[in-house]
Design brief:
It contains twelve helices and ten strands. The chain is α+β, with helices and mostly antiparallel strands and 315 residues long. The protein has a single domain, classed as Alpha-Beta Plaits (2-Layer Sandwich). An eight-stranded antiparallel β-barrel has the order 2-4-3-10-7-9-8-5. Strands 1-6 form a two-stranded antiparallel ribbon. The longest helix has 13 residues, at 36-48. The chain starts with 7 loop residues before the first helix and ends in a 6-residue tail after the last strand. InterPro entries: AsnC-type_HTH_dom, Dimeric_a/b-barrel, Tscrpt_reg_AsnC-like, Tscrpt_reg_AsnC/Lrp_C, WH-like_DNA-bd_sf, WH_DNA-bd_sf. It holds the Pfam family AsnC_trans_reg.
Length: 315
């Protein structure tokens, strides 16, 4: 298969899907002033090439679970196999290889009443060290700007779905069947979802609308930043003075290079992912933006070598 490249229309289609990942292609086409088939063909090409896919997840708030940020120091020759094994686990939500293959980072979900299941990882002969810290809170309420800068303000207004009401709902048996299917393909058609979960299309349509309206279900479009022209990604672990934690997190979340910010337990109380054009841009980000944050006591960086899993079935 030929290498995938993105043109201006591809970027607009992806931006539209970031606004509403289940928007009908006809609605996207109208906003972009192109044919329906053109939009469907563009996304179909990217999905078939593995360059983009829509996934879904549910926050740990709604599953009654907690999230653990797990750091594994591993033998470099074992990192790819170990990462793939972690990605297959239903309790992992994010798996990435770091520091040239000497580390693996993952988010692992566990019951609030029990510790994370780390014993089997600690016994693995290719894992040299295991560290786990609670991910206390996600602190970024916007998407990374590198994925969402292709549309005009009018196009964004035409495509943005109505705001949810935030009403809490209780997950049920249908959700436990539906959510793993949506995690695999967040744009799966209603007939396909009905076939996979064994419920009627009308019931699935109503439930999906409820999940989205309540902000229980979160849809996302996975795109490799390298395709967007960003070749340097880095995991940042920051130790911030407690009195400056909230202000530092807000400033960090506002940086255009920032793709994620979270508060954690442990000696580093903030974690972030920075995505930059190249190594020179990453250096400038670390020295200028991060260096100017008030309250930073210590910074540890780990280049992201590859992503093995970004989202996972939640139940």
């Amino acid at each position: 298969m030929d290498p995938v490249t993105l043109d201006a229309l591809d970027l607009r289609v992806l931006h539209a899907l970031h606004l509403d990942a289940r928007a009908p292609f006809s609605r996207i086409a109208k906003a972009l002033d192109v044919a329906d088939r053109t939009v469907a063909r563009r996304f179909g090409r990217l999905r078939a090439a593995g360059a983009a896919r829509v996934t879904a997840t549910v926050s740990s708030r709604d599953t009654g679970q907690v999230e653990w940020l797990v750091r594994l120091r591993v033998r470099p020759d074992a990192a790819p196999l170990l990462a793939r094994g972690l990605a297959r686990r239903p309790d992992t939500r994010w798996v990435t290889v770091l520091s040239g293959g000497t580390e693996i980072g993952c988010i692992l979900r566990a019951s609030r009443a029990a510790p994370p299941p780390l014993e089997e990882l600690a016994r693995h002969r290719q894992i040299l060290q295991v560290d786990a810290q609670r991910l206390l809170r996600h602190l970024m309420d916007r998407q990374w700007s590198g994925r969402t800068s292709a549309l005009t303000a009018d196009q964004i207004a035409a495509l943005r779905p109505p705001a949810g009401d935030g009403h809490r709902i209780v997950l049920n048996d249908l959700d436990r069947r539906l959510l793993p299917a949506l995690a695999t393909d967040g744009r799966a058609a209603y007939p396909e979802l009905a076939r996979r979960v064994g419920w009627s299309e009308s019931a699935i349509r109503r439930r999906l609308e409820e999940l989205r309206r309540s902000n229980t279900l979160h849809l996302d479009v996975e795109v490799d930043p390298l395709l967007l022209g960003y070749s340097a990604q880095c995991l940042l672990r920051l130790a911030i003075a407690p009195s400056r934690l909230s202000s530092a997190a807000r400033s960090l979340a506002a940086h255009p290079e920032t793709a994620f910010v979270g508060a954690t337990t442990g000696k580093h109380n903030l974690i972030a992912i920075a995505v930059c054009r190249d190594d020179n841009a990453l250096y400038a980000h670390l020295s200028d933006r991060i260096g100017s944050l008030d309250g930073v006591e210590r910074l540890e960086t780990a280049p992201i070598t590859s992503y093995t899993k970004r989202h996972a079935p939640t139940l």
